[in-house]
Amino acid sequence: MKNLRVFNMLAICIAVLFSSCATDNDDYVDITLQNDLEKKIIELYGSKEALILPSSNNYLAIPSDVNNPITDAKVALGKMLYHETGLALNPKHSEGKNTYSCASCHHVAAGFQSGILQGIGEGGIGFGSFGEGRLKSSAYIEGDLDVQPIRSPSVLNVAYQDVMLWNGQFGATGTNVGTEANWTVGTPKEVNSLGFEGVETQAIAGIDVHRLVIDHDYIVNSAYKALFDNAFPNVNESERYSKINAGLAIAAYERILLPNEAPFQQWLKGEELAMSDDELRGASLFFDKGKCYTCHSGPGLNGMDFHALGMNDLAGANILTVVDEATKKGRGGFTGNSEDDYKFKTPQLYNLKDVSFYGHGGSFESVKDIIRYKNEATHENAEVPSEKLSPMFTPLNLTENEVDFITMFIEKSLYDENLKRYVPEKLPSGNCFPVADPQSQKDLGFN
């Protein structure tokens, strides 16, 4: 009888143990999957730390332009200028005044991309929930819109990019050394002559391109004066409140836009439960069979190489501009070198799932679609000759399940849910942002 009681007690303990394991299953991650991923990353990069994004206030660890060191004061100023619709002082039509900003096409609601396929600065109305509701104003003809002939890329992780735009035309150093003949006087590319890296160059050039104005009187008669004074105390006041300094402050802000709270980042820093088993499987495929890492590398999971993958350009009934030949040719449209034709810069991969268009022409509706495209390696753009395609654009032989795992890794593990920490609660001007036309103010609940 005593033995029977002991046996029953043992059986109960075993049952409780297994019940407990089942209940806590969500807190369990296969150690083999963990070890496999860690081994792959160490083989590729030497350590897990090599892929860690620094804290956004660790300025010494964030890649920066030696001519524009990041400071708290510059970031504070740049954060406001980036979102300030009060800089919209050079519109084609009076209706557009004070209604757009840098953030019109690169805002937090869409992962610092545009919420629509073709971002609209001046000439747009409405916002919706994440920018998807922005439309062309009936008061504008298409030729007067501030709209790009290519999809607006995210500004996340730009600190890891020495040249900017899909064709890399902005930036005077590194990748663009030797392109000086293409810094055409009288065009935005002339700003390269100032000698800054891409982030700074684009920020300075973009002020004019997107019809913004750093007006001296507006600055010195507002709270922005103190912000400029704090950011550039060593610059003579006669030169302090300038377009160049505004661009440098915006660039400093953009460099700290790091999705360093994403689950993959948490896992790299030692939080073993940050990713599920399936996300770990996707990450292992990303850094192995999927060969994603060959282009998307480093902490930003981007790249400074240009590749021809035969993707379509912007097209369709809702596209508001004709895509010119230079844009279609990507890097070649900037360098004039036929060997660069149809090559586009490798984008970063964090916080992609807030939109439903991918590729430089937005021709894919989901992350999964573009992974399938690269897996099958059959180019969709008939204008791109086969001989121009990247030698790396070859079938990967991934199964459908493997495509799903990589998709899960990109959509979930590379998604920082707290990007709003980078956005001001309000602007010194009190203006609505990131856009401020009457319909947008309603959509955004601005009173």
Architecture overview:
The protein has 447 residues and is an all-alpha fold. It has helices at residues 2-23, 31-45, 72-83, 198-209, 216-220, 224-231, 237-240, 243-255, 263-268, 277-286, 325-328, 331-335, 367-376, 400-413, 438-443, and strands at 124-125, 135-136, 306-307, 344-345. It folds into 2 domains: 30-57 and 260-413, Cytochrome Bc1 Complex, Chain D, domain 2 (Orthogonal Bundle), CATH 1.10.760; 72-258 and 419-443, Cytochrome c-like domain (Cytochrome Bc1 Complex, Chain D, domain 2, Orthogonal Bundle), CATH 1.10.760. Helix content is 33%, strand content 2%. The strands form 2 sheets. Strands 1-2 form a two-stranded antiparallel sheet. It has a two-stranded antiparallel ribbon with strand order 3-4. The N and C termini lie far apart (79 Å).
How would you concisely characterize the structure shown here?
The protein is mostly helical and 447 residues long. 33% of the residues lie in helices and 2% in strands.
Task: Tell me the count of domains.
Answer: 2
Gross geometry = globular
For the secondary structure, the number of strands is 4
Biggest sheet overview: 2 strands, antiparallel
Point out poorly predicted stretches: 6-25
What key phrases describe this protein's structure?
Cytochrome Bc1 Complex, Chain D, domain 2; 2 domains; two-stranded antiparallel ribbon; 15 helices; globular; mainly alpha; 33% helix; 447 residues
Secondary-structure topology with pairs:
Blueprint lengths: L1 H22 L7 H15 L26 H12 L40 E2 L9 E2 L61 H12 L6 H5 L3 H8 L5 H4 L2 H13 L7 H6 L8 H10 L19 E2 L17 H4 L2 H5 L8 E2 L21 H10 L23 H14 L24 H6 L4
Antiparallel strand pairs: 1-2, 3-4
Helix pairs in contact: 2-10, 3-6, 3-8, 4-8, 10-14, 13-14
